Design the sequence.
């Protein structure tokens, strides 16, 4: 209506301006006729001007509207969104007549509306007894500080002591490198574009614009140490300053601050859930905090429910917070959180609501960072069976 009204008014203004221009020209001619013309010419000029009176453009009628807000909004929203019913009979666990079941237990994590998960129904999946090794290979150097697998089976690797990041295939061969003028602290792949982002020396956040060519997108107020690009096109950054004030920030891609939260320690790792949109961070190698997309606190986890092998005895003992050392977190496709525990050298699986599910893997040596590939293939930096450092690709869900 506004656009239509503006068109009508503009047309009316144009008509009036055209008529005014004509009248001015006739008025000038009339004045000249009064001084030099005969009575007949004066009469004709006056008549010509008067004949224009009936042609005045009428003022257009502008439509008006009145809006009354609906009183029954909730029922209309429910009707618009609709209901979803899932048939899950084919996921039920069968029973064996011999008394031994060939099937693994079905894990049914508690779903919590507090962390944005479904309030109705159950998410069901089956875990393998132990992860299947899809591939393993040596990789020089121990200190990989971030792994970002790509959708085509490769992965970007970052070392915070280096000014470069490498793209490798699933055999460890370097096929591309990006170099920068300063140390690159952390990396993240944009889930929409697939482009690599990183935070680096100089409080700078960069994006790979063309292969091997980074472009600075914005700078941060404090020193950035970790980052994650979300599916909504936001950049979540963990920072610290020299007063030892640690924060989590949510930026737009051009550096506008949307949300911020103060944390008690360095933010080492950030990940976003593809199911709920929640954001999980590792703080100071001691705890995991889960926020919603606006950094409202949802979950605080310090290893509750985890089990550890007792010293010298074959019993399981509960893990205390001082024995819990998360270094990296990643969400998988089920909305669960995979944790690389550097103190116990394990890979843990918890639900998005912060409930312990299972210890997926225990490494005899070093357990480094992890990354998740499409199809829930887990890339893990650890000590290989040969005793050297490298990477293993693991699958922990049953197909």
Sequence:
């Amino acid at each position: 209506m506004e656009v239509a009204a503006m068109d009508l008014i503009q047309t009316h203004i144009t008509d009036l301006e055209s008529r005014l221009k004509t009248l001015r020209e006739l008025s000038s001619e009339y004045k000249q006729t009064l001084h030099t013309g005969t009575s007949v010419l004066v009469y004709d000029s006056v008549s010509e001007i008067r004949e224009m009176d009936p042609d005045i453009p009428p003022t257009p009628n502008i439509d008006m509207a009145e809006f009354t807000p609906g009183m029954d909004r909730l029922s209309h929203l429910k009707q618009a969104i609709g209901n979803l019913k899932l048939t899950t009979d084919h996921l039920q666990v069968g029973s064996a007549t011999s008394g031994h079941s060939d099937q693994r237990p079905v894990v049914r994590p508690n779903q919590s509306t507090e962390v944005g998960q479904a309030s109705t129904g159950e998410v069901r999946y089956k875990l393998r007894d132990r992860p299947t090794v899809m591939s393993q290979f040596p990789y020089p150097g121990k200190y990989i500080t971030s792994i970002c697998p790509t959708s085509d089976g490769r992965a970007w690797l970052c070392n915070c002591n280096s000014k470069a990041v490498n793209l490798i295939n699933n055999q460890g061969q370097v096929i591309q490198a990006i170099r920068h003028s300063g140390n690159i602290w952390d990396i993240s792949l944009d889930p929409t574009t697939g482009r690599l982002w990183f935070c680096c020396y100089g409080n700078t956040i960069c994006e790979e614009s063309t292969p091997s060519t980074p472009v600075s997108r914005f700078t941060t107020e404090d020193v950035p140490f970790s980052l994650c690009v979300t599916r909504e096109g936001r950049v979540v950054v963990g920072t610290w300053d020299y007063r030892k004030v640690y924060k989590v920030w949510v930026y737009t891609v051009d550096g506008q601050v949307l949300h911020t939260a103060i944390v008690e320690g360095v933010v080492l790792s950030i990940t976003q859930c593809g199911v709920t949109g929640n954001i999980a961070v590792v703080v100071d190698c001691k705890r995991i905090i889960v926020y919603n997309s606006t950094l409202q606190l949802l979950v605080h986890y310090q290893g509750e429910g985890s089990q550890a092998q007792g010293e010298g005895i074959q019993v399981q003992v509960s893990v205390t917070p001082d024995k819990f050392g998360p270094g990296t977190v990643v969400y998988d496709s089920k909305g669960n959180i995979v944790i690389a525990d550097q103190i116990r050298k394990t890979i843990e699986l918890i639900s998005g609501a912060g409930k312990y599910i299972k210890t997926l893997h225990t490494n005899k040596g070093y357990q480094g960072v992890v990354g998740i590939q499409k199809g829930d293939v887990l890339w893990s930096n650890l000590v290989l069976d040969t005793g050297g450092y490298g990477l293993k690709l693991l699958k922990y869900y049953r197909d």
Observations:
- Residues 88-121, 310-314 have pLDDT under 50 and may be disordered.
- The CA atoms of residues 353 and 398 lie 22 Å apart.
- DSSP finds three helices and 27 strands in the chain.
